[in-house]
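If you are new to this repository, start here. Below is one unmodified record pulled from the training split, so you can see the exact layout before writing a loader.
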Amino acid sequence: MTRIIYFHLFVLFGLLALSSSVHGEEKPTTHWWEAETALAEDGTLILTGKPWWKRAAALKVGEHFLVKSEYPDGGQMLVRREKLKRGKKTFEAIVWVIDDDGDFQPGQTDGDKDSDCYVADYGCDGRVDRMLDYIDNDGDCEPDEMDIRYFHKGQLRISWFGMDLDDDGHMWSIGSYEYQGGFFRSDPYGDNMIYANRYDPEQRQWVPISECPFAFYDTDGDGESEAVVRVSAAPINFDPIKEPDPGNSFHTGPFQDRMRNIGAVNIRYGIDLDNLSGPERRLHYDLGFNLIARVPYKFEGMEHTNPLRRAPKTTRVIPHKICRQVAETYPAEQTGFSWHEYGDDAITQGFGPHANEDRRWEGIFWTWNRRVMHNTGSPTQNWNMRREFRPTPSKKRELYYSRVDRRIHLKGATDGWIHVGHLGDPKSTWGEIRMFDTNGDGYFDRWETYRTGAAAPVRISTVVDAGIRDLPNDWEKLHQFYTKEMLPEAIAANDKLTAAMQPLNDEFKAPEYLAKALKAAACDSEKRYVQDIIRESQYLALRNKLAERSDKLLAASAPKSRGVSTADKRAASERAWAFALAVSKLDAAYGEGRYEDAVHLLHELAKLEGVNIAKKIVVGLDRYYNNETRGGQPYHYAWEDTSTSGFSQLQTMLHGLGVTTVSLKEPASNKALAGVNIYIIVDPDTPKETKKPNYIQDKEIDAIVEWVRGGGVLMLLNNNQGEAEFEHMNKLARRFGITFNEDTRLGVKTDPGKLKRQMHSLPDHPFFKGVKKLHMRSVCTLKVEPPARVVYKLDGENIMAVCRYGKGTVLAVGDPWGYNEYINFADNVACLKNVFRWLIELAK
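And here is the target side for that same chain:
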């Protein structure tokens, strides 16, 4: 109760002090804690005139004393001598602690962080060097704002301010009474804002300067930041040649007259588009805008007055609530656009357990290379960071999607590039990809691929139809498009295309460093990026091989005379030319990102070469209806999941059978299932497993049914009661005469004797050849009606069923059978091999 009374009195006196101020110069106040630290006319704060100074100067390190302010209603103050450290330098300091809110307790030897002020005199020469002021606005005994005021020879120069908007009590990380650097340790997480102001000693007021503000936004309420805005405030007439980084150029030195005419000269705006920022992977920003102009620093609501702040009480900063809007509508003269595709394994500029992923608290930086823009900042990342540059003015941030590379681009960008390398191996260098808008319509239409060591591009695509799609200026819609549509489609398209290329170039193997990078990919966007590089490597190798083959065929079929050639020669000539045309069409389709056409042309080339491409069976595992993740990684019945819940060992087994495995991260459709021979849907999500489950919809069921009818092989693996989604899964299964019963058999409470005897007597079926015993746990039973038929029963209840439907086949099992935990129990591996050999033959 006592502290609450102190707080209310503190606020009351602050308001009275505020009422005594006028615009511009602020009149001295009679409130004791302000009078104690009031600045002289020249903006200095000198301690040698304090009545306690001689006593303070005589202190030894570790000694302190309490003294009561001599001003009316003066409170307690503590003075001590400390040994401080800045970098490698150690020194002594007199520290003066002022109990602004009057809650010092008897015997207390330090202040607190709810409205106490710390004044530090480095070197004990009587001149103030730092003032650290904690301000508790709401009386909860935690700071809501902070001032870190910097003095030079006792004269106030600049202050950093903090605003704790999410009320977690965190703002700045402090050492030796100043910001200790490395803002990762401060609070760029959640809703927060920091900013700088310069002190104008003539006008005795604050003016915006430097980073004003750095604003962080928690858009989903998880306590992390998904958006960041940094505004650079500098004299509007700064010289970008002499002052290339104005946001960091005006901290020191005396106040300049031109600082009274400040501009917002640069804005950096970063977004976590895939919304993966979380406790396990913080600051997961994906993209960033670097915007430059000379806009007067005049914004609605920018004057922020706090009666509990020491004079000057009014700071000037763009309010947090409009900062993103300012970034969205800033009239940029030029725009740089960056996209974090992957980390740089040769550097470490992140923080925490995933520092090697190079995610920064500031968001995404531009670069000091090629297209130089002032106020870019640092540290920058050169490898695996896509750059795009727009040299023309823009009043809004416009993006578009291109089918060519299945990426989001900056509309109006004339050129762009990405250095590929330093992934999987810090010494690896793959090459570079460049993008250009050659016709000036605002969209890239030319891509050039360079390999390390080659001066000329190894592949050029000048596209007529880039499959452009303008994107909405709505970040939630963009998030949905990016995570639910674009990334899953890109990953699936890569899987299908690489699978189609493999039979024509069996000797291709991804470089070890790329395979390592793919395995280490922390999210779908990184996985897709490495996939892209592997796919491009594979295509370049295949194209060279096909070009050589085409040249040999044409040469061999060329006529030896001007007369009529033989029928065999004519046929060979036609075949050679058909092959050359197909190669040319393939290059055009690949270059425009028309991957379905490319797959079709690869099949055509395979037929011309006598390669039975259909023998390379593709097994697609659904990761859309079962979309569980843990720590941002695929989890629960996923190829990538190597824990007990994963399918990694099943995948290894399937590779041993000669098939290609892919993950399908999009809803079932004719497009999604094209090129897939065996489609596995396992344990679709429930709300208990995923916040927003992707239930199987009617149109998707129709697409799956038609795909099976045309010859596809469908494998449905469900789970037991309480662990699986039954309603929508059964809508699909019933189309084939099968229903998963919402029950549990062989559960955790099953008699051990029964478990030991389970699945011992197996019927005469190809599935069970050479199999004596199976092991399953917590399964559901099946209701089986024509055209489906039962394959295996346990104690009279159906566990496995098969349905021949049109040209295709459906296998249903009441268990996510084959996952890592139980795959090696009993004869499960032998049985699974039998099952998949049978399904593969059907798929062929």
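Two things worth knowing about this chain: DSSP finds 15 helices and 36 strands in the chain. The longest helix spans residues 524-557.
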